[in-house]
């Protein structure tokens, strides 16, 4: 059984972000990159399924982006994926979700993937569109935001996370696509032997031009920091002094301290 | 300009968030019509046209049928905009409708600006203006970003909507939320732990601060996902929505899903070493500090 996992490499969200020269996305200077958090759950779920079903599973991971994304692919190969596909695109940040989905669809079409896992969204763009758009372009069913997954003989049972802690239980048949929510599982850390083993795994490089035949449906007009509303009090400096200041403020402005 | 608004309906109830769609359409200056997959006894308080399909026939979660029903209404109304909530219902359905129409979709819109729609980026730290390139546009709007002013009124003109086609998933049913160890919605003071506390061993430090100020311990989603704090204490869209007199966010960056669950608090204190963290925008007081240094100091002063 062939499984595909789609991952994105994103900056560490603790970073300070600055617009790039064109003001359309972030400047990559001083940023550290990692695997999009939601995608780590997708990878872990696929690897767990691989462990459940054994060698009958062939697990491919795909990522689109500049050469730095190879680092992310190596990490998930070390988590247990079998082979990696790097769709080489230095301009990936300028593509819209429709195009990203189209690139993956062009790769995946006719390859017979029974299951496709993606994160529910990326941490940097947060559109939550690519997974569903990919499924729609491939003409297969999809369910978003899963927090539980079970597979037996082509039958998939998932739980969707809804608002307020309620879950929706959904059954569907492979081929299918699932978008993964955080908390679905506990993503593993690659072990040193597996990191070594990953170095020998296949890494296929495909230029994006071979896969992209769709125009963008939307473009980014500007990337910028939020307008500062201000108004709030900012305390900085010595910890003990700030604690005194905060207590004074709480006594004055709230009724919870007497 | 015309907007087709897709109502939210779950467990046989029309959701109040439906009116946020109307508020947004008002800002857009668009004429409206609505689509509801629900029931005739639970139509929105709204004076316009509602295309109604029976949830008993089509199911509450049935993406293929709901997509078909929305497309049938699009056919009749020919709207410029098709607008959903950015919710578990909306983010699941909107891309399906957008793909079928090959329309641009802008997700989690927080504002209308010259040249496009404003949306968050980088976990809410940054903003992006997105410009659709298609004539017809699908939008999802951020939960809580647009408030309907006043009391919604009116009786809609209902038109039946039908769709014939196979389902490709089977909805089995709902699983209720886990029993709550604590009802945070009743707490007057909540002190919440976020990823910034560093590790599970530090949770008692935050719990001690909560105790010193006679509050309840809360938590952000990453802390709950990591298993440091039980789910019943999670504050946010997928946890509890709270409105205490005082909310203290400890090492919480302020992801949208968390902010939506606590922004109705009377007074918000954020303790964060990152001065630019989005929580600062919601906070009445931002303490720029390592929470693991500041929280014990505050606890000691409160006890002293």
Describe the overall structure:
- Helices cover 28% and strands 31% of the residues of chain A.
- By secondary structure, chain A is α/β, with parallel strands linked by helices.
- Chain A has one domain: 3-Layer(aba) Sandwich (Rossmann fold), CATH 3.40.50.620.
- In chain A, the strands form 2 sheets. Chain A has a 9-stranded mixed sheet with strand order 9-8-7-10-6-1-4-5-11, with helices on both faces.
- In chain A, helix 2 links the parallel strand 4 (58-65) and strand 5.
- In chain A, helix 2 (69-79) packs across helix 5 and helix 3 (97-108) crosses helix 4 (130-138).
- The longest helix of chain A has 17 residues, at 37-53.
- With 304 residues, chain B is α/β, with parallel strands linked by helices.
- Chain B folds into 2 domains: 2-160, Rossmann fold (3-Layer(aba) Sandwich), CATH 3.40.50.620; 184-303, Rossmann fold, CATH 3.40.50.1220.
- Helices cover 27% and strands 29% of the residues of chain B.
- Chain B is built from 9 helices and 17 strands.
- In chain B, strands 9-8-7-10-6-1-4-5-11 form a 9-stranded mixed sheet, with helices on both faces. In chain B, strands 14-13-15-16-17 form a 5-stranded parallel sheet.
- In chain B, helix 3 packs across helix 4 and helix 5 (203-212) runs parallel beside helix 9 (291-303).
- The longest helix of chain B is centred in the N-terminal third of the chain and has 15 residues, at 63-77.
- The chains are: A alpha/beta (258), B alpha/beta (304).
- The interface between A and B is large, with 78 and 94 residues.
């Amino acid at each position: 059984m062939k499984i595909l996992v789609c991952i994105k490499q994103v900056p560490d969200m603790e970073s300070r972000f600055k617009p790039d020269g064109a003001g359309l996305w972030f400047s990559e200077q001083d940023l550290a990159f990692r695997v999009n958090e939601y995608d780590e759950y997708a990878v872990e779920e696929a690897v767990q399924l691989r462990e459940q079903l054994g060698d009958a599973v062939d697990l491919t991971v795909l990522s689109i982006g500049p050469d730095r994304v190879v680092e992310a692919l190596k990490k998930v190969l070390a988590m247990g994926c079998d082979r990696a596909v790097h769709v080489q695109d230095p301009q990936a940040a300028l593509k819209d979700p429709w195009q990203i989905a189209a690139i993956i669809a062009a790769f995946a079409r006719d390859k017979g993937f029974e299951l496709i896992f993606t994160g529910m969204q990326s941490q940097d763009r947060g559109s939550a569109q690519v997974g569903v758009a990919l499924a729609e372009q491939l003409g297969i069913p999809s369910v978003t935001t899963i927090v539980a997954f079970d597979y037996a003989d082509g039958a998939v049972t998932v739980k969707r996370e809804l608002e307020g802690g309620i879950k929706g239980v959904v059954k569907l048949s492979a081929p299918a696509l699932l978008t993964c929510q955080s908390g679905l599982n506990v993503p593993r850390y690659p072990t040193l032997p597996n990191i070594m083993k990953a170095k020998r795994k296949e890494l296929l490089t495909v230029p994006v031009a071979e896969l992209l035949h769709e125009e963008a449906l939307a473009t980014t007009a500007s990337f910028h920091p939020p307008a500062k509303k201000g108004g709030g009090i900012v305390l900085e400096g010595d910890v003990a002094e700030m604690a005194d200041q905060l207590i004074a403020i709480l006594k004055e402005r709230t009724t919870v301290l007497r | 300009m015309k907007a087709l608004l897709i109502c939210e309906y779950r467990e046989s109830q029309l959701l109040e968030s439906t009116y946020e769609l109307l508020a947004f359409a008002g800002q857009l200056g668009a004429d409206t019509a609505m689509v509801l997959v629900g029931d005739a006894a639970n139509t929105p308080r709204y004076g316009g046209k509602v295309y109604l399909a029976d949830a008993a026939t089509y199911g509450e979660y049935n993406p293929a049928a709901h997509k078909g029903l929305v497309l049938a209404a699009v056919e009749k109304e020919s709207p410029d905009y098709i607008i959903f909530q950015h919710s578990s219902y909306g983010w699941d359905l909107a891309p399906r409708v957008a793909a079928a129409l090959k329309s641009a979709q802008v997700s989690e819109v927080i504002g209308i600006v010259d040249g496009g729609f404003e949306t968050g980026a980088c976990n809410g730290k940054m903003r992006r203006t997105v410009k659709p390139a298609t004539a017809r546009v699908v939008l999802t709007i951020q939960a809580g970003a647009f408030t309907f002013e006043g009391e919604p009124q009116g009786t809609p003109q209902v038109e039946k909507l039908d769709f014939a086609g196979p389902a490709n998933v089977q909805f089995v049913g709902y699983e209720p939320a886990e029993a709550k160890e604590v009802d945070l919605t009743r707490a007057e003071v909540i002190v919440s732990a976020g990823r910034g506390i560093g590790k599970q061993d530090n949770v008692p430090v935050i719990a001690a601060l909560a105790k010193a100020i006679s509050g309840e311990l809360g938590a952000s989603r990453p802390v709950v996902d990591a298993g440091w704090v039980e789910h019943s204490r999670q504050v946010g869209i997928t946890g509890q929505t709270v409105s205490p007199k005082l909310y203290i966010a400890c090492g919480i960056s302020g992801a949208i899903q968390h902010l939506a669950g606590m922004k109705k608090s009377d007074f918000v204190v954020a303790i964060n070493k990152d001065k630019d963290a989005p929580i600062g925008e919601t906070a009445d007081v931002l303490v720029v500090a390592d929470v693991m240094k500041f929280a014990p100091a505050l606890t000691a002063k409160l006890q002293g």
